[in-house]
Amino acid sequence: MKKFLLASAGVLAIGVVSAAAADLPRQRPMPEKASVYVTPPYNWTGFYVGINGGWGFGRSDISAPVSSGSYDTSGGLVGGTLGYNYQMGQVVFGLEGDIDWSDLHGSAPCGVTTCETRNNWLSTARGRLGYAIDRFMPYVTGGAAFGDIKTSIAGVGDTRTTKAGWTVGGGIEAAIAGPWTAKVEYLYVDLGDTGTAVPGANANFRSNIVRAGLNYRF
């Protein structure tokens, strides 16, 4: 009889536990965490066009027999830019050309008269080597420079010559919104020497240019 009662109690206990387990809410699987979106690094590869403008300052002189000594030149520049970048890792190789209207000029006494040097347009064709830090790119640049040098010797005459020279410099460019980038840069430009209206007298033109630019990338 005792064994029967114990067995009946065991069966009853199992039934109660089973019923309680059936009434428990089912465990739902834990929701998967959404993957974190990582913005891909900025890529500088591609063509671009833009505008630029700034200020130039430098030195010029006209040599004997109407020696002027060295004098300051300065003025503004504004123009357009065309270029292409190719990025490998964080290194960016580029080619860039620009042409600017220029108002760089200066004058000084030379003997009993006045001498002036003026540059009315300036163009460069340069290579660029940059290092991409995501949306920022510092760079160095250098290449050829072209422009006109106009010399005026009061009472004697004027000359105007298109000259080729060289330029070197550097800057930093930053992606600001969508396809737009902005830059600031410095260039040293040397257009060499040119003749004047006085036989044997030469003029030179050298300038430092600081300018900003806005580019649209394709």
Provide structural commentary.
With 218 residues, this protein is mostly beta strands. It has a single domain, classed as Porin. Helix content is 10%, strand content 67%. It has one helix at 2-23, and strands at residues 46-62, 71-88, 91-110, 113-131, 136-153, 157-177, 180-195, 202-217. It has an eight-stranded antiparallel β-barrel with strand order 1-2-3-4-5-6-7-8. β4 and β5 (136-153) form a beta hairpin. The longest helix is centred in the N-terminal third of the chain and has 22 residues, at 2-23. It is rod-shaped and about 100 Å long. The N and C termini lie far apart (95 Å). Residues 1-21 have low confidence and may be disordered.
Structure summary:
The protein is mainly beta and 218 residues long. It is 10% helix and 67% strand.
Quickly list its features:
218 residues, mainly beta, 8 strands
* Main sheet characteristics: 8 strands, antiparallel, barrel
Residues in β-strands, percent = over 45%
How widely separated are the two ends? Answer: 95 Å
Return the string of H and E elements.
Answer: HEEEEEEEE
Overall radius of gyration: 37 Å
The parts where pLDDT drops under 50 for at least 5 residues are: 1-21
The second-level CATH architecture is: Beta Barrel
Number of strands: 8
Give the class-level CATH name: Mainly Beta
**How large is the count of helical segments?**
1
The helix-and-strand class reads mainly beta
Binned, the helix content reads: 10-25%
Average per-residue pLDDT, rounded, comes to 88
